[in-house]
Each structure stands twice: as C-alpha cells, then as structure tokens.
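Note to self: user wants both folds in one dump. Writing first protein now.
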Amino acid sequence: MKKFIYGLLGFAAISITSCDYHDPNSDKFGNDSSTGWVQFENEGVTYASAVQGANSTLTASVPVVIKSVDIIDLSGGTFANNPVNEGLTVYYTVEDIDGSSSFINIPGSVYIPKGELSANITFTVPATAQISCTQFRVTLTSTSKSNVTVGFEDHDIATQDFVISAFSTDAYVGNYSVLHTFADNTQASYTCNITAGSEENSLLINSLYNSGNPTKVYVNADGTLSFPDASENYLLTQGGVDYFVGGVDGFVSCFNGGTVSVDFRVVSDAGSGGLENVVLTKN
C-alpha cells in the first residue's frame, strides 16, 4: 500500500512595495543566489518503541533540512544554508514495508518559520496501534520550485525509514547473529544468545567478544538501553588485566525480526578503549 502525502514547508513571503522592483534573491536562498536542495538530516532508520498496552500516544519525528549547493567545505562536508525568503512546498510519499501505517496520524504539512533551516515531519501513533511491528518509508519526491531539488549529487538523503514496535523484553530472548565493529573499524561476526535478567526489564547478552560472560543491559520504555556500572559487566581477563564493558547507548527494535544495538567501550583500571558497536539480529 502506498500513500501520497503532501508536506508543506512554508516560509513567510516577503512583500515588495514597488511593482517595478526585481528582487535578485527571489526563489533563492537568503542572500545566496545558488541552487539548493532539501533532504533528511541523517541517513538510516528512526526507531520508536512503546510500552505494550500503555494508554498513551507515541510521537516520532524526522527533520527535513535545507542545503545549498555551493556551501561545501574542502573536506566534502556541507553546511546548512541561509533560509529561503519565500514559501516552499516539499512533496513526499509514505510506503509500508512491514505491517500497515494506516493508523498513523500524518499531519500533511509542516511549517518552517522565516529564519529557520529545518522542520520536523511528525508521526503520532495511538496506543491502540502499539501492539506489533510496523516499518514504513518516507521518501521526499519534489518541491514547488525548480531550483530547489530533492538531494544533490553525492549529498542525497531522500528517504528515511521508521520502525515502530511495542515494547516487551520477552520478545528479545533468543539466539542472535552478531556483527561487531571494533574501535579501529574492523569487523567480526559471531553468535550469542540473550536471556532474561533477574531485574525488571533487564537482559543478559551472552557473550560479547565470545568471552562466555554476560553483559547486563536495561531496556527503557522507549526502547533505548541503559547500563549498570562497568564493574558489574565483567568481560574477560587478559595479561593479568581485568576488562569490563562500559555501556554508552543502544536500543532494541522489532526491526529484522528482533534487533539489539549496543555502543560500548572496553574499560580497565588503565582507562577505556575506543567506541565499539555490536548489532545483534535474531535468528
């Protein structure tokens, strides 16, 4: 099922008192006469979780930002441009990938006040729909001005996925395939399992680094992870030194049948290592 939704990114129009005056910046970005584009702020997936059966609504949003073609630094990065001085309409579609997004209240328009550079497309999920996994994709398609495109060359983030799941720790107990990205960006694959912890909303990841030891995480109501003190998450002993897992952040999601992502650092009395990440996908 594919739904075409029209989002309005509106800017207050500047009134001109003289009919003979030609604004050189008309249809342009602020004082910059270059062509511009719109895109999402970041690549990837937006995850949102709700407590199963909770009598509340869940709101998730994704920012749409405005860029300028010629504001590109020497390292290839881009900077946000000055805001346009007239209204701009951005069109986008919503496409279901897994489950149905028909229950989602989509506003259909979003307003960017003059002087701002972005606005959020916001989706509200009622409690009655927070009972299963839903994945849908938002795709920017066009704008109302010919000199403002969707994406530009290598700088093109035209899509954003949403994964919305009802939260239940029991759903994440099982066997997993692990993709481990180390601090030096090398990777390794192995398997592990997740069991329920003795504390409420806690899970034990058995085991990072194939160490055989569990790493405890706590699952928050929104699906994000929190961690005990590193001293409670013993990892392994090597060269007479004890190492522990210092949790940084992470999340659980119904994505791919069950996904757990953890960012952490290996710590010891000598200090902490670089940031590492494990993505566990349920088998």
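First done. Writing the second protein, which came from a different request thread.
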Amino acid sequence: MLPNSRSTSASAFVGLRGSRSSPSTTSRSTRYVSASQPLDLKNPVKDVSSTLDDFYATYSQPPVLPMYRPYLVDLISQAHLISVDSRFKYDAIFAWGLWDSFGGMMTNYDQLVGAGNTDKIWNAMVSALGMDPSKVKSDAEAMIAYAKGVSPADVLKHMEGTAEASEMRASEAFANIKSSLYNSVSSAGLFGIMDVAGVEVTKANVEEWAKALTLTPSKVLSDFETWKLRQAKLQQAQEMLREVQIREKKALAEKLEAKAKALAATAAAKK
C-alpha cells in the first residue's frame, strides 16, 4: 500500500458517507475541516530579531564597529532570551552582570569612534531589552559599592540568609536568585562580586558560593568556564586594540615627520 493510501481511502469514505450521514456526523466532519485550517496566531513574546531591530533603530549612526558587533549582538541576544523567560526576575546582580559584560568589551570604544558613543550604545541596548538604562546602571553601581565594603565571610552569610546585607538590593538579589530563573548574566554579576570582594574566582570558590545560594553547582561551574573564556577573549581584544593604537600613533608620527622634513627642504631651497 502507498504511504498515503490510507488517508486517501479515509477521505473517500468520509465523502461517501457524507451524502447519507446524520446531522451529528456532518457536524463532526465540519469541525474536523475547520480545525485543520491554519490559524493566524500572534506570539505575544517579543523575538530576538525585534529586539535587535529596536537597538539598531535607536543607535543607527555611526555604525557599530565590525570587531565589536558580534560580541554586542551575542550579549543582546543572550539577555533577550533570559528576560523573556516567564521565570526571570530582574535584580541588581543581573544588572551588574549586564553592565560588566558590556563594559568589559567597550572600554576603549569611545577612543576609536568618539566620546559619548559607548553611553549611547548602552542606552539603546538596555532600552531594546525593555529595561531602564539608568536604573540598571545604578543597580550595578550599588552592587559594586556593596562588594567593595564587605568581607568574603559576610557575603556568604548574606547569601545564606543568616545575616542581612547593608545594601538592600544585595539581599533582594540573593533571595531572588534562590527563587527564580538563574542565568549566565547573573553568573557574571556573581563573579564580579567575588572579584571585587577579594575572593579569587576559582572553581572551588564558585562551587562554595553556588551551594550558599542553593544553586546546582554544575550550572554555575558551566557559566564559570564560559566566563573565563570570555574574559580571555576580552583581554586579547584589548591587546589588539592597544597594538592598533600604537601602530596608528607611529604612522601619524612618521607622517608628521615626513611633512616637517618636506617643509624644511622647501624652505631651504628658497634661500
């Protein structure tokens, strides 16, 4: 029998019975046909491409430099997928993770393009994600100040909930991590707290902090490996930029020197 012979026979059978079927049979057949029609359903959740379109609509000029674009698109896409998950809850640790992930790459951007462009890109990115750029930055800065003024032992107590942090946003974020979607951006914020608080960001320490937050260690350790690779790539990118800037300065100096010699030679010839 051919693959579609059964469905063909069934259709013929329905058609044959249709001329002599009861009203209830005809009604069932009608419902079946109606249900088989394609439905025009709109997804209420914003997709990644729309978020990227919103970003580029806000920050259209000057174009993002090619070497920065892949990292930026990846960060926007990653943050978008996290934020549209129904289990996600925004907090100050997520804010720091987003701010730190952005700032790590964009450190020298204004030197290449012009002052103020980094802030414009940040505002466009966070707005496209449906968040308030000023609030996210303020929350990130609050977490940085918290980490600078706390001991590693106290951070563990705050995470475990056995002591209250002086910064309310820190306590709220630790509690939030335990009850909502944990994600890679929050991991970046957590590793930032470790670094600024004077805790070496190692596998053992990451695992200890994960347990204090009642997180599955393997998940946080996976983020840690990704974070380490990203940090290494960012360092390479910064070194590359420094080399480019050195070459540009050298080329400019040589050009100015050649121009000065030409002017001197012209002046000498006129004497």
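Dump finished. Worth passing along: DSSP finds 13 helices and no strands in the chain.
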